[in-house]
C-alpha cells in the first residue's frame, strides 16, 4: 500500500487563509494570551527552578505577548533546522506568525528557558513531567485499567470498537475502557465516523504494518497502547510502529520516557489482571520488534505533514494504514487554515504516503469533512464547538 500516492507532486489547494497567532477574537490568540501565562506559572511551580530559569520563562512570555520573534541562541542539535524554519519570521511580532509555527516555537523556546538542552542539572528534565506522573497515578486511570478485565470478556468486535472510541476521546472519555458498547454516551459528539473504512484499509492488506503517530502521554496514551495490542493479538496487523516526540512538546505530547512510564503503569497492575497482561505483551512486543517505537526531528517541526522529509516519508511508505492521533496531528495533516468545514477530508490528506486515518477530538478551529447541515446546526448552538473538546472525528482517506 502507499505506492499509488504521489506525495509531494500531488499539491493541495492552499488558498484558505492561514490561522495566525494573534488575530483578534480568535481561539489562536486566546492560547497565547490566556493559556500561556497560566502554563508558564505552572511550569515554574513544577520544579524548583533557579532564578535564571524562572526569569527566562517570564521573559519568553513577555516576548510572545509584546515583542518580536528572536532566534535560538544555542548549539543544540536542532539549532540549524530552527535557523532555517525561522528565516521568514525573525523580527516579526508573534501575533503575525502562523499559529502552528508560533506554538511550536514557543514550546521549543520554553525548553531552552528551563535548560533542557544545556549541560547542567536541568538537562533532559521534562518540565511537564510532574503533571504527566500525577495523571498516570490518578484514581481515574486505576478505574479505567480495572475496567479492562470486563472488556476482555466482550466479543472481539465490541472490544475493537470500545478501544477505538477510547483512543479517540482520550481523557475526555469519562468511562474510559468501559466503552464496551462502543459509544459510552459520547456518540452524539462524533461528527464523522469512518471506522468501517479504517478497518477496511487494514483488511485490504493482511499481515501488514500499522503506524500510529501518538499525541498525548498519560491517560491518553494508555488506550492507544491497548488498541495497538488488540490489533496485534487479533492478527489484524502483523507489526506496528508507534511514533513519539523526540522531546517534551505541547505540554503533554508523548516521548519515549512517557511510553516506558505507561508500560510500567500497566505492568504494576499485576499478573492476574488484564492490564498487567497487556503491559507484559507490549513489553515483549517491543523486545522482539513486533511493536517498534520510533521518533524523528520532524515531529517537533513547525510544519505540516505535506512537508515531511524524504527519510520519514520512506519510513511510513508501504504500511497498510497510518493513524494520526489528536488535534495537533490533525492540524499538521490537513493544514492549519480556515478551511471551509465541508472540504472533503481526502482532498486535504490525499498526499499522505499511506492510507491515513485521523482520530481527533476538536480542540482548534481546523475542520474538514462535515455536511452543510452539520455546520449550520453546530453554529446555531452558539457554542465554540470547534475548540471545546466536545466533538470528535474519525476520518479515513485511502
Automatic annotation (TrEMBL):
Cofactors, names only: Mn(2+)
Reactions that this protein is recorded to catalyse: beta-D-fructose 6-phosphate = dihydroxyacetone + D-glyceraldehyde 3-phosphate; beta-D-fructose 1-phosphate + H2O = D-fructose + phosphate
Gene Ontology biological process: DNA damage response
One GO molecular-function entry: phosphatase activity
Keywords: Hydrolase, Manganese, Metal-binding
Annotated coiled-coil segments of the chain: none
Gene3D superfamilies, per the entry: Uncharacterised protein PF01937, DUF89, domain 3 (3.40.50.10880)
The Damage-control phosphatase ARMT1-like metal-binding domain, residue ranges: 32-376
Pfam family, one: ARMT1-like_dom
Record family assignment: Belongs to the damage-control phosphatase family. Sugar phosphate phosphatase III subfamily.
Protein's recorded name: Damage-control phosphatase ARMT1-like metal-binding domain-containing protein
Organism whose genome encodes this protein: Nocardia aurantia
Amino acid at each position: 500500500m502507499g505506492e499509488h500516492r504521489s506525495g509531494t507532486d500531488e499539491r493541495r489547494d492552499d488558498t484558505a487563509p492561514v490561522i495566525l497567532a494573534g488575530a483578534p477574537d480568535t481561539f489562536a490568540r486566546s492560547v497565547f494570551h490566556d493559556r500561556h501565562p497560566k502554563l508558564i506559572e505552572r511550569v515554574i511551580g513544577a520544579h524548583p527552578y533557579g532564578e535564571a530559569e524562572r526569569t527566562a520563562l517570564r521573559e519568553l512570555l513577555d516576548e510572545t505577548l509584546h515583542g518580536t520573534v528572536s532566534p535560538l541562541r544555542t548549539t543544540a542539535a536542532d539549532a540549524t533546522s530552527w535557523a532555517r524554519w525561522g528565516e521568514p519570521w525573525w523580527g516579526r511580532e508573534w501575533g503575525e506568525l502562523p499559529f502552528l509555527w508560533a506554538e511550536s516555537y514557543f514550546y521549543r523556546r520554553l525548553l531552552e528557558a528551563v535548560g533542557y538542552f544545556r549541560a547542567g542539572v536541568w538537562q533532559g528534565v521534562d518540565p511537564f513531567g510532574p503533571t504527566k506522573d500525577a495523571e498516570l497515578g490518578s484514581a481515574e486511570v486505576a478505574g479505567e485499567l480495572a475496567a479492562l478485565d470486563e472488556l476482555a470478556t466482550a466479543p472481539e468486535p465490541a472490544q475493537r470498537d470500545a478501544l477505538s472510541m477510547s483512543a479517540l476521546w482520550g481523557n475526555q472519555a469519562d468511562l474510559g475502557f468501559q466503552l464496551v458498547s462502543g459509544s459510552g454516551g459520547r456518540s452524539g459528539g462524533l461528527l464523522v465516523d469512518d471506522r468501517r473504512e479504517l478497518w477496511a484499509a487494514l483488511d485490504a492488506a493482511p499481515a501488514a504494518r500499522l503506524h500510529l503517530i501518538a499525541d498525548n502521554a498519560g491517560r491518553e496514551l494508555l488506550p492507544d497502547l491497548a488498541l495497538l495490542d488488540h490489533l496485534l493479538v487479533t492478527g489484524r496487523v502483523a507489526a506496528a510502529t508507534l511514533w513519539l516526540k523526540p522531546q517534551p512538546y505541547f505540554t503533554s505530547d508523548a516521548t519515549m520516557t512517557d511510553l516506558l512510564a505507561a508500560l510500567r503503569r500497566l505492568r504494576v497492575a499485576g499478573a492476574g489482571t488484564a492490564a498487567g497482561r497487556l503491559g507484559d505483551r507490549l513489553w515483549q512486543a517491543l523486545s522482539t520488534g513486533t511493536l517498534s517505537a520510533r521518533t524523528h526531528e520532524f515531529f517537533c517541526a513547525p510544519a505540516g505533514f505535506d512537508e515531511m522529509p524524504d527519510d520519514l516519508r520512506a519510513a511510513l511508505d508501504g504500511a497498510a494504514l497510518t493513524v494520526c492521533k489528536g488535534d495537533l496531528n490533525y492540524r499538521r495533516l490537513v493544514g492549519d487554515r480556515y478551511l471551509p468545514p465541508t472540504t472533503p477530508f481526502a482532498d486535504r490528506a490525499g498526499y499522505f504516503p499511506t492510507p491515513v486515518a485521523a482520530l481527533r477530538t476538536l480542540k482548534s478551529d481546523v475542520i474538514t469533512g462535515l455536511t452543510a447541515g452539520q455546520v449550520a446546526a453546530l453554529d446555531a448552538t452558539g457554542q465554540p464547538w470547534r475548540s471545546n473538546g466536545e466533538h470528535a472525528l474519525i476520518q479515513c482517506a485511502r
